[in-house]
Amino acid sequence: MLAEFNIIPLGTGESMGDSIASVLKVVQESGLPYKANAMGTIIEGGWDDIMSLVKRCHEEVLKKAPRVTSTLQLDIRPGKPQDRLTEKLKSVEKRLGKEVKK
Amino acid sequence: MLAEFNIIPLGTGESMGDSIASVLKVVQESGLPYKANAMGTIIEGGWDDIMSLVKRCHEEVLKKAPRVTSTLQLDIRPGKPQDRLTEKLKSVEKRLGKEVKK
Amino acid sequence: MLAEFNIIPLGTGESMGDSIASVLKVVQESGLPYKANAMGTIIEGGWDDIMSLVKRCHEEVLKKAPRVTSTLQLDIRPGKPQDRLTEKLKSVEKRLGKEVKK
Amino acid sequence: MLAEFNIIPLGTGESMGDSIASVLKVVQESGLPYKANAMGTIIEGGWDDIMSLVKRCHEEVLKKAPRVTSTLQLDIRPGKPQDRLTEKLKSVEKRLGKEVKK
Questions:
Q1: What secondary structure does DSSP assign to chain A, as a single string?
Q2: Position B68 in a domain
C-alpha cells in the first residue's frame, strides 16, 4: 500500500521547512521505502507500519506546534507486488511511450 | 482530534452507495462521535481509536473491491476540549453573526 | 458536481475561526448551494461556477495571510440530476435502512 | 503557486494507468512546469493557468469514465520567487544536511 501525507503546523509562522525536515528525518530513520516531493512524502508498506510512522511524524511536529492539520492519501491494492513506489509511474511511462519528469 | 475520511472502491462500478453504507455501518457500531456529509465522514476521538476505526472501514470496503483509494484529513489540537465536531462551526457562526447551512 | 474544500491560513496563528467565517461569508453571498461541516465546505454547481467561487475564497483568506494551503475534493458525475448535496446521503440511508448523523 | 492533483476514474475497472497516462499527456502539452509522482502530479503556475489545465485533465478522463473523483492540494505563497517545484525540497535538504529520496 502507498500513502502520501503532509503535515501542516499551525501557530508557528508561515514557513514549513523546519517541520518538513523533522518529518523526513523520522521517515528516513524508519527504514520504510519513501519518496519526497514538493507537496508531501510517499511511503510504501503495510497498514500498521505506515500508520505507526505517520503517527510518530505527527508527534514530532506537535512538539513545536500547538495545532496541526494533515492530509493522507492511500492507495491500497492487495494483490500487487511491492515497489509500486517506482513501478506505478514506470507503467504509465510505458503507456505514454516516453519518460515523465519526476 | 477530528478526522474526515472517504474511501473510494475501484473495480466495482461507478456507484459508491453500497460502499459508503457499509462504512457508515462500521462507524455507527464503533460508538465514536461522527457526522456524515456528502463527501465523507468526520469522526472525533484519539489517534488510536480513530485509526483503528478507519482501518476497519478500509477492510470492510476491501472485502468487495480489489483496490481502494482514500483521503483522510486530520485536525489535531491537543489543548482543546472535546466536541469540536459541533463546536468548531458554532464558533464560526458566532463570528458571522448568523447560522450556516449544515 | 460536488466540491469540498478547506483553506488553511499560515502565519496568522493557530486559530482558523476568522478565516473560515470570511470564507463562508463569500460562499453565502455567491448563492451556490452549500453545506458547511467541521472540516470544510461542500458546494454544488458547474466547474466554472465552483472554481470561480473557490478562487474568490482563496483571495479573501490571502488578504490576511501571507500563505495558504488548501485541499479540494471533487466528485463529478455528469449524467446525475442536481441536488446531490442532499440526495447522496439519502440514498445511503435507504440502503442502511436508517438515518445517519449529519 | 503549487498544485498537486490526482484524478480517479470510476466505472472503468481497478487500473488507473491509462487514465494517468492521458492526464500526463495533457500536462506535458501544456508547457507548465510539472513533476509526477506515484500518487499525483504537481504543477506550478498562476491560479488561472493551473485551473484551466486541471479542468482539461478532468475533461480528458471524463471522455472514458462516467464519474471521476479527484483531490487537489494547493500551496499559495504570493511573495515567493518561482521554481518552488524544486526549491522547496532543496531548502529542506539544507536544513537536514543531506539529500532526500525523490
A1: -EEEEEEEEESS-S--HHHHHHHHHHHHHH---EEEETTEEEEES-HHHHHHHHHHHHHHHHTT-SEEEEEEEEEE-TTS-S-HHHHHHHHHHHHHTS----
A2: yes
What count of other Cβ atoms lies within 10 Å of the Cβ of residue B94?
11
Domain that holds residue B16: 2-77
Alpha-carbon distances, residue C8 vs A36, C40, C69, D101 (angstroms): 22, 10, 5, 28
Tell the burial category of C61 from Cβ atoms under 10 Å away from its Cβ (0-12, 13-18, 19+).
buried
Q: Flag whether C45 is in a domain.
A: yes
CATH code (residue D25): 3.30.70.930
Cα–Cα nearest to A70, from A60, A79, A84, A83: A60
Q: How much of chain B exceeds pLDDT 70, in percent?
A: 100
Helix, strand, coil shares of chain B, percent, nearest 5, are: 40, 25, 30
Higher pLDDT among residues B79 and C2, named by residue: C2
- Smallest CA–CA distance, residue D72 to chain C, in Å, is 5
Is the model's pLDDT at D26 over the cut of 90?
yes
> Could you report the predicted ipTM of this complex, rounded to two decimals?
0.95
Q: With beta carbons less than 8 A apart as the criterion, state whether C42 and C83 touch.
A: no
Residue D18 belongs to some domain of the structure: yes
Task: Please give, rounded to a whole number of angstroms, the shortest distance from the CA of B64 to a CA of chain C.
Answer: 16
Find the residue in B nearest to C76 (Cα): B14
CA distance B8 to chain D (A): 9
Enumerate the residues of chain D whose CB falls inside 8 A of the CB of residue A37.
Answer: 4, 35, 37, 42, 89, 102
Count of structural domains within chain C: 1
Looking at the domain assignment, is residue B87 inside a domain? no
Which residues of A lie closer than 8 Å to C, measured between beta carbons?
Answer: 8, 10-11, 13-14, 16, 65-67, 69, 71
